[in-house]
Amino acid sequence: MSRPGFSVFHMQQVGLNCFYEPSITAVQNFSASADAQKLKDAMKGFGTDEKTLIEVLGKRVSFQREEIADAYLRDHRKPLLDEVKSETSGDFRETLVKLVRDLLFVEAQGMHKAMKGIGTSERRLNQILMGKNNADLERLSEYYQLVLGDHKEDANRTLIGDVNSETSGQYRHALCYMLDYKRDEYAGDSMRTAIDRGGASVIDERLVQDDARIVYECLTSRDKNLDPVCQILFTRSYIHVEALCKEFAMAYNLALYDVCDAELSSDFRNLVLDLLEYCEERSLYFARLIRSTMAGLGTKDDDLMRLIITRSEIDLASIMAAYESTYRKTMIDDIKGDTSGDYQRLLLALCGC
After folding, report:
1. What is the model's pLDDT at position 186?
2. Which of 122, 237, 329, 335 fits 184 for a cystine, CB–CB 3.0-4.6 Å?
3. Main subcellular localization, coarse class (predicted)?
């Protein structure tokens, strides 16, 4: 389990010239045993002290929650996950369960849910895979098989195998590029240098120009050979794709997003548009996803929980700022309007409230 510090994954998400702000950070003077004892006391005897559960699990980052779970098992001889399931209920319990588990296990559950039963939720597949580095995608695939075991399904199946069977066409090719761990990445020292120098040290400008030309020609030609477009967008680094968008606009006086919107179709178009928005306006991309979980009738609680939990220690504060700027309403107000009780209070704690 990685510990806080310089994360290549986080740095590869930041783009060339901007950083992102989490809503929760690692607690200083942290004691896993002390927190485990607080949780034990909160769930002991008649009734449950939900406020303490929120104050502990809603204010700790993932590696601290993992250490708390380890301390709980060591000190109290019971799995924290089982205790939480036994002592809580409803959406509050589901959120706590996700907090106690590894973040990538939670996202593997989301992948399974997206492909289970009749039909596939391509939107959920896109948002879970977007921005992951190759190492995290590999771990996601490993956790997916654990999820299959939890559901007593064929453990010989694989994530990439299920994606192959549940999707088709160019969309399937793009997802398989991602799940075959093909995307270019940079070592941590290279990323530090890139940030210091505005990205120039890791961006091959000639390659960016060549890629912009190839993408333009493929998208605007009559026969529309999309294989090179797919390979470029889903094997180049996220920073390279961001630079490609800028080069495309300068070279052709067109936004690559708009050209793809007009020239592509179906699930592949949606995935490409998600990628381009992620690379150019990441905070807005996730703000839109969170907004979609609360728009219209009903709330997509499982997606809302997952997005708030997984973004909280990466960039949720930045996402909340983009949300308010775009929708002229705070994310906090929308969460208050769509949720209630301890579930609401736990989500707000993860938002830094």
Report:
1. 66
2. 237
3. secreted
